[in-house]
Design a protein that fits this description.
Helix content: 25-40%
Largest sheet: 2 strands, parallel
Strand content: 15-25%
Order of helices and strands: HEEEHE
Radius of gyration: 14 Å
Distance between the termini: 13 Å
Number of helices: 2
Length: 80
């Protein structure tokens, strides 16, 4: 969903390819796909139901990463 003329496009394409590759492995994986990142203070909550164009603080994403390492239910999950 990133325009080809966006400076973010190469990153988005590389992440999509890496995510697809990872899904095809036998590794225990969890893929995170946060919306636009901000520098806001963390709230301790993320909205996985947010519409396209949403935003989330980097600190909240970091908390989700840490929590996903502690909970095996996230293995094989794509969290957007």
């Amino acid at each position: 969903g990133v325009a080809a003329d966006s400076s973010f496009f190469p990153y988005a394409e590389a992440k999509a390819a890496a995510d697809q590759h990872l899904r095809g492995t036998e590794l225990d994986w969890t893929i995170l796909a946060p919306s636009r990142l901000t520098l806001e203070e963390p709230t301790g909550r993320i909205d996985t139901e947010a519409s396209e164009g949403g935003q989330v603080s980097r600190a909240n994403v970091a908390r989700v990463i840490a929590a996903s390492l502690e909970h095996s239910q996230t293995i094989g999950q794509f969290i957007a």
